[in-house]
Design a protein that fits this description.
With 125 residues, the chain is mainly alpha-helical. The protein folds into 2 domains: 1-87, Multidrug-efflux Transporter Regulator, Chain: A, Domain 2 (Orthogonal Bundle); 90-120. It has helices spanning 10-17, 21-30, 48-63, 68-77, 80-84, 92-119; strands at 8-9, 37-38, 44-46. A hairpin with a 5-residue loop joins strand 2 (37-38) and strand 3 (44-46). Helix 3 packs across helix 4. The protein is elongated, with a radius of gyration of 21 Å.
């Protein structure tokens, strides 16, 4: 079973929040608190906290219709906890893949335990 990803690519984040990657790069210039890690070759690596901030920026700009300046001020006034409490939505296909991966992992554990128990003499447990 794969561990939870710590870093996500700009294309993953752009797809999740439904904006183009160049929009995310632009937002980095306008919102000083948005600072994804920059890897070798200039690739951006977004952490969960970065994604939540991007989601909040998108909401302020696209849904609440703030200007860039207004959104910047709103974010500065917000408690960081408000932003970090946002849930990151999974796409249906990602959710299905995650469930399948969990199911396979549980099946492997069950088989390993079954083999271990079959090889042990009774009464050792």
């Amino acid at each position: 079973m794969k561990p939870k990803k710590i870093y996500h690519s700009i294309s993953d984040v752009a797809s999740l929040v439904k904006v183009k990657p160049y929009v995310l790069r632009y937002w980095e210039t306008e919102f000083s608190m948005l600072k994804p890690k920059v890897m070798r070759g200039g690739r951006r690596a977004y952490r969960e906290s970065d994604i939540k901030l991007v989601m909040m920026i998108r909401k302020l700009l696209y849904e609440d219709r703030f200007t860039i300046e207004g959104a910047r001020r709103k974010l500065q006034d917000m408690d960081r906890a408000e932003i970090h409490q946002l849930a990151i939505p999974f796409e249906q296909s990602s959710r299905q893949a995650a469930l399948e991966e969990i199911r396979k992992g549980l099946q492997e554990i069950s088989e390993t335990l079954g083999q271990a128990l079959a090889g042990e003499p009774e009464g050792d447990f």
